[in-house]
UniProtKB/TrEMBL annotation:
UniProt lineage: Bacteria, Bacillati, Actinomycetota, Actinomycetes, Catenulisporales
Gene3D superfamilies given in the database record: 2,3-Dihydroxybiphenyl 1,2-Dioxygenase, domain 1 (3.10.180.10)
Enzyme class label: isomerase
Protein name: Methylmalonyl-CoA epimerase
Species assigned in the record: Actinospica durhamensis
EC number of the protein: 5.1.99.1
């Protein structure tokens, strides 16, 4: 069961400049930063609303750390901008199974490591009206 919009992922070429833009323009503050080697990105989560112990919605700024990462390839093809929409769920495995039963393809056979130690999977954009969709099970926020 989808419980909320968790975050909107935004591909950027310069993480520090993007953070500064969202801080200056909207007053968003950085909640968390990390490097995800598996996904090939340096990322920052900026809280939009809610509280950090539940119900918050975030912007996830993603800067590639290597040229073969999905974000680097996205930037090459599309430039900076919205990369994906992420929905929160209490059980990413069960939600992935339920969604794939409707004919939507998951990108990974098993969940992968995401921000904050979350478990994630992506759904194919061709099956989701052109939108790369992420399912997120966050131990911090569920």
């Amino acid at each position: 069961m989808i419980t909320r919009v968790d975050h909107i992922g935004i591909a950027c070429r310069d993480l520090a400049a993007s953070i500064a833009f969202y801080q200056r323009t909207y007053g968003f503050e950085v909640f968390h930063q990390e490097v995800n080697e598996q996904q090939g990105v340096r990322e920052a989560m900026l809280r939009i609303n809610g509280t950090d112990d539940g119900g918050a919605t975030y912007l996830q700024l993603l800067e590639p750390i290597r040229e073969d990462s999905p974000i680097a390839k996205f930037l090459e093809s599309h430039g900076e901008g919205v990369h994906h929409v992420a929905f929160g769920t209490a059980d990413v495995r069960a939600e992935t199974a339920a969604v794939t039963e409707t004919g939507v393809r998951a990108l990974y056979p098993e969940p992968r490591h995401g921000t904050f130690g979350s478990q994630i999977n992506f759904l194919h954009p061709k099956d989701c009206q052109g939108i790369l969709t992420e399912l997120v099970q966050s131990p911090v926020h569920e």
